[in-house]
Amino acid sequence: MEKRVTLRDVAKRLGVSTGTVSRALQDHPALNPITKARVLQMANSLGYRPNLAARFLSSRRRLVIGVNTPRDPAFFYDQVRKGIDQESAPFQMTGVEVQHRMFPRVGVGEEEAFESALDAKVDGLIVVPGGSRSLKSCIRRASQMKIPVVCLISDVTAARKLVSVSVDASASGALAAELMGRFLVGKGQVAVTSGDLTVSDHRGKCTAFERTIRAQFPAMELFPPIENHDSECEAYEKTLRLIDSHPDIDAVYISTGNGLPVLQALEERNLFGKITVLSTDLYPELIEKIQEGAVAGSMYQRPATQARIAFRLLYEFLYEGACPPARVTLAPLLVMRGNLNCFHGEDPR
Amino acid sequence: MEKRVTLRDVAKRLGVSTGTVSRALQDHPALNPITKARVLQMANSLGYRPNLAARFLSSRRRLVIGVNTPRDPAFFYDQVRKGIDQESAPFQMTGVEVQHRMFPRVGVGEEEAFESALDAKVDGLIVVPGGSRSLKSCIRRASQMKIPVVCLISDVTAARKLVSVSVDASASGALAAELMGRFLVGKGQVAVTSGDLTVSDHRGKCTAFERTIRAQFPAMELFPPIENHDSECEAYEKTLRLIDSHPDIDAVYISTGNGLPVLQALEERNLFGKITVLSTDLYPELIEKIQEGAVAGSMYQRPATQARIAFRLLYEFLYEGACPPARVTLAPLLVMRGNLNCFHGEDPR
DNA sequence: TTGAAAGCGATACCAA
DNA sequence: TTGGTATCGCTTTCAA
User: Fold this and answer.
1) In a domain? residue B335
2) Residue B178, in any domain of the structure
3) A38 shares its domain with A63
4) Window B148-177, strand D contacts by Cβ < 7 Å
5) Chain A residue closest in CA terms to B313
6) Does any domain span residue A340?
7) What digits encode the pLDDT tens for the residues B111-124?
8) Residue B311 to residue B172: CA distance in whole angstroms
9) What global pTM score does this model have?
10) Is there a single domain that holds both residue B210 and residue B235?
C-alpha cells in the first residue's frame, strides 16, 4: 500500500515549488538547465509517475489524435473506425480527443485530409495510406513538425512514420497456400488473382503463396498471378479469360480484399462447388459465399484489431514516450463456415 | 467547440449544491428521492457527462482489480498474465492497481486465492475458474459483496458473474471438422481426444466437431471421443490403445490444450506424416510438430487476447458502469506452418 | 436531507 | 528564472 509519489513530494524534497517541477517535467523553455536536471533526477529516483487525470484536468489542453480513413468500402473502414473508437473511449478521461477525417477512397483525397489534420494541429495522426506519391511528402512534413504518423492497413515504404500496422502479408499468402495444397491433396492447377504487384502488400502475399506451394506441394501447377489494378472491370474480364482458357483449373486464390468481380466471374461460369476458392478479407457477398460453401475460406485482416493496435501504439508514444517497433504485423485469421458466425459481419477481435 | 456541461451547471439550474447533484448521480442513500429524480432529469436534459478524470481525482479511491490465475502450465498462463499487464498498463496512471494472485493449477487452491482477494477488498476480480464445486459459492459471496467477477478462459455455469470470456468452443470444433473433412477429401476414419465431456467447453468442441463432420462429410467415420480427464497417463494409454486397435486410422483431432501425451503416443507408433493431426492451443512441443509438418494445424485460444478483453470489460464496468453482455466468446485462430512465425511462442493478439 | 467548503494532483498565470 | 496560487470538475466530510 505505498502512497504514490506526487509532484509535491518531489518539490518538497528539493525545496522548490511545484511550478518548477512541473516546468522541468515538460521541457519548459524558461528554466535553468541545472534546476531542470536536479528535478528530473529527483523525480526519477523517487519513482515519480505523473497523474494523468490531474494533468488533463488542470491543463485545458487535450491530446488530439487525427484518424484519416477512406469512407468506402464502408463495410471495411467502418470497422477500422469502430476499432479506433472503442479502443480510445476509456482514454477520453485522460484528455484524448479523436478527430475522424474521411476521404472518398484509398488514395483519393488523402492529401487534403492530411493537410486538414495538420492545420487542425493534431498531436498525432493515424492514416490509411493509398498509393499517392505526394503522401510521402505529407508524412515528411509531419515529421518535421514532430507530429508522429501511424500507417494503418497498408504501408508507405521508406517514409518517416512512427510505425506501420498491417497484416502479415507473407503469413497470409503462406497460410492460403498451405490450405490450398492440403485441400487439393498436393496436385492440380491453381490460379492467383492480385491487385498490383508493385504494392508490397500484394506482392508479399503472392510471393509467399507461390513459394509455399513450390516448396510443400511441388506437383501443383501454378499460373502466373493475374493483376486487377483495383479495376472491377479488369478483374472480371481477366478472370473470365483465365477460366475459359483453362477449363481444367482446380482452384483460385483471391489474394486481395476486392475479389467480388472474381467471384462473379466464377459464378457466371458455374464453377462454385467444382473448384476450390480461397479468398482474402470479409465482406457481405463473400460471407454469403462462405456460408453456402462456394468459397472454402478467407484470410481475414481484422481491421478493427489493427486499428486498436494503431491507436494504442500512438497513445503510448504520445503519453509515455514509448517507442514502438518500426513495424507491427498481425496474424491473419482464417474464416471458414465453422467459425463464420463468430463474426456477425464485424471484427470482434 | 461546445463547452461541456459540468456538474455545476446542473446544480445552478436547479438551485441546489454540487454536492446534492453528485450524490444524486451516484445513488447515495441519504437523499430525497424527489430531489434525486429532479437532478437526474435535469442532468439528462442538459446532456451532462461526468468528467472521469475529475471524478477519479477527487475520490481518492484507487481501483483494485484482482487477477487469479493458475501458475501452471506457465507457458499458457504467463500469456494470460502478460495480456492483463499490457492491457492495464496505461490505466495504472489513472489509479488502477492490478493484484495478481496465483494458485498451483486449475482448480487447485483457487478458493484460497479467491478468499484472499475478497479479504484484500478488491473492487473487481478476474478468475480462471476450475471445476471445484465451492467456487460457485465463492462467486455468490462476491456478488453479495457487490464485487463483480469475470470468468476467463473457461466458465462457471449459472454462477452470478459479470461476464465470462472464452473462446467459442463450438466454432473451434466446427472449424477443426471442416478442415479435417477437406484435408481428407471427405472420407476416412477420424478419432477425437478430449478432456472431460462434462466440462461444457470440452463438450462444446466435440459436439461441434461431430455435428459438422456428420453434416458436411457424411462418408467419414468418426470414433467416439476419448476422454483423458486431464491425466497424462490416461491420455497416453488410451491413445495407444486407440491406434493399435484401429491400424487404418486416418486422422486425430486433439480438442484440448494438453495434447502432449497424445502426440507422444502418435510419435511412438511412428504415425506422424501418415495421419492428419489437428490440435488445440499452442505450446512449445506442439509448435515444433507444426513446424515439422507432423501436425497440420491448431486452433489457438489466444490467451493474452482473452485476458485483455476480460480486463477491459471489467474496467469499463467499474469506471463507466458499462454492462457487458453475459458471455463474450472469441474466434479461435488457426495456426499452421504458414502463419506460425507470427507467434514467436506468444500471443501477439 | 442538504449546503458549504476542503481537497485530489497537476498546470499556468502573475509577480517577484 | 522561480514562487505562489487560482483553477480544472468532482467527491466527500462537516455542519446545519
Assistant:
1) no
2) yes
3) no
4) none
5) A90
6) no
7) 999 999 999 999 99
8) 23
9) 0.93
10) yes
* Phi, psi of B58, deg, nearest 5: -80, -45
For residue B66, being part of any structural domain is answered with: yes
A56 contact residues in B (CB cutoff 8 A): 53
Residue A19 structural domain: 7-49
The domain that contains A141 carries what CATH number? 3.40.50.2300
Tens digit of each residue's pLDDT (9 = 90 or more) over B232-280: 999 999 999 999 999 999 999 999 988 999 999 999 999 999 999 999 9
Q: Are residues A149 and A266 in the same domain?
A: no
Chain D footprint positions (protein CB, under 7 Å): 1-13
Spatial separation of the C-alpha atoms in residues A329 and A164, rounded to whole Å: 8
Residue with nearest Cα to nucleotide D7 C1': A58
A345 in reach of chain B (CB within 8 A): no
pLDDT at A2: 57
Residue A329 in contact with partner chain B when CB distance is under 8 A: yes
CB A301 within 8 A of CB A257: yes
The reported pLDDT for the residue numbered A26 is 86
CA distance A196 to A121: 35
End-to-end Cα separation, chain B, in angstroms: 37
d(CA A214, CA A222): 9
User: Which chain B residues touch A250 with a CB distance below 8 Å?
Assistant: none
How many CB pairs (< 8 A) connect A and B? 138
* The pLDDT value given to residue B237: 94
Grid coordinates representing A259?
Answer: 475479389
Clarify whether residues A33 and A67 are in a common domain.
Answer: no
Q: How many domains does chain A have?
A: 3
- Nearest residue to nucleotide D5, by CA–C1' distance, is A19
Instruction: Residue A187: count other Cβ atoms within 10 Å of its Cβ.
Output: 13
Query: CATH code at A44?
Result: 1.10.260.40
* Element at A188 (helix H, strand E): strand A188-194
Query: How confident is the prediction for chain A on average, in pLDDT?
Result: 92
Name the band, by pLDDT with cuts 50, 70 and 90, for residue B4.
confident
Q: Are residues A287 and A196 in the same domain?
A: yes
pLDDT digits (tens, 9 = 90+) for A41-92: 999 999 998 888 899 989 877 889 999 999 999 999 999 999 999 999 999 8
Same domain, A80 and A14: no
Taking 80 as the threshold, does the pLDDT of residue B60 lie above it? no
